[in-house]
Amino acid sequence: MGRIESCFESLRSKGEKGLITFITAGDPSIENTLDYMQSLVDGGADVIELGVPFSDPMADGPTIQRASERSLAAGTDLSSIFMLVRAFRERNASTPVILMGYMNPFESMGVQEFCKEASNKGVDGILIVDMPPEESTEFSKEAKNYGIDVIRLIAPTTDLSRAKEICNLSSGYIYYISVKGITGSKDLDSEDVQQKVELLSTETNLPIAIGFGIKDSKSALSVKDFADGIVVGSVFVDLVGEGGDTIKKIAAKTKELSLALK
Length: 262
Hints:
Elements: H1 3-14, E1 18-24, H2 30-43, E2 47-51, H3 62-73, H4 78-91, E3 97-101, H5 103-109, H6 111-121, E4 125-128, H7 137-145, E5 149-150, E6 152-154, H8 160-168, E7 174-177, H9 190-200, E8 208-211, H10 217-223, E9 229-232, H11 234-242, H12 246-261
Parallel strand pairs: 1-2, 1-9, 2-3, 3-4, 4-5, 6-7, 7-8, 8-9
Helix pairs in contact: 2-4, 2-12, 3-11, 4-6, 6-7, 10-12, 11-12
């Protein structure tokens, strides 16, 4: 059993929901990111998604776009992110780590080489924002060979037959996008999300995590009862961008969200 499956099994046995947190790797430096990852875990994060910076993050709002720019300016690349994950694994052997990003940086390394390196360094899953199922055969094959889960996005506009197809090609968990638009979007409609997630749950046995539009305990509580987990990203990236005592602020926000879920 991999770390992601084990994590959700443990949460389910305790009647708890998972807190999946996102930060951009290398923002403002790899060394800082390692400390932020530890702060997330200390605050109660169950899974960490690491954003792989890209020059054209089309699905991301200004917050994560700026984070990608800062990270790229600092020289962050996949090799340094792999080193980051390896350093994190020296501190933490159990918290799942997901690499989230766009196809170009992953493909440029070579799919097999990427999956091999990711597995060797302790990566548990990948979430490639702009990789439709029709173009994912090679990634799916190599990821499976190296024990890496392929997490996929399902949008509120995805019809049920398409959603079923995506679920059948997924592993780890399903990331349900709770609002239309880019990351950092607001106006989460919890009733609509509940209807869509309950329908989606009839098509998969995988955990369903809800992301986009969740930034505090109130928004977390509004969706926790019909999800297996929530994903929170832009608020943490904002805290990094603000500077100051970032580690303390990340830990406090993580604890707030974790307590709301548990």
